[in-house]
Amino acid sequence: MDPSVAAGLPGWVGRRVVVRHLLPDGRATDVLGTLVAVDGTRLEVRRDRLHAGEDESARVVRVALGAVLLAKPVPPPPVRRPAGDRR
Predict the structure, then answer these.
(1) Is 53 a domain residue?
(2) What pLDDT is recorded for position 1?
(3) Residue 4 belongs to what H/E stretch?
(4) N or C: more exposed end of the chain, with fewer CB within 10 A?
(5) Would you say residue 86 lies in a domain?
(6) Number of domains in the chain
(7) What is the pLDDT of residue 10?
(8) How many CA atoms are closer than 13 Å to the CA of 36, on its beta-carbon side?
(9) What pairs with residue 17 in β-bridges?
């Protein structure tokens, strides 16, 4: 991870972020949600959404800083309109 990004992470706590990181098998994946914690070795992101079949234990994702490829703040999610509202 770029050291300048790592240095800025603590200032992003509480903000919505996207974090691209490596899985143990070498594939990359993204996590989107609120950055809730950062320390010297890892960060924690509370995901915006769960996938079908996941329980609340999957809500917070912990990622080792060494596995982070990219991290950046992103805007809030768009406001969802009720079904059938076509304005």
Answers:
(1) yes
(2) 65
(3) helix 3-8
(4) C
(5) no
(6) 1
(7) 83
(8) 14
(9) 33, 73
CA 54/CA 65 separation, integer angstroms: 24
Domain of residue 19 covers 3-73
Residues 28 and 78: beta-carbon distance below 8 Å: no
Domain assignment present for 84: no
Instruction: Give 13-61 pLDDT, tens digit per residue.
Output: 999 999 999 999 999 999 999 999 999 899 999 998 888 888 888 889 9
Name residue 80's amino acid. Answer: R
Phi, psi of 61 (to 5 degrees): -110, 130
pLDDT beyond 80 at 72: yes
Q: What is the pLDDT of residue 80?
A: 78
Q: For residue 54, is it within any domain?
A: yes
Q: How far apart are CA 47 and CA 35, in angstroms?
A: 9
* Positive/negative CA dihedral, 60, 51, 78, 63: positive
| Chain centroid offset of residue 53 CA | 20
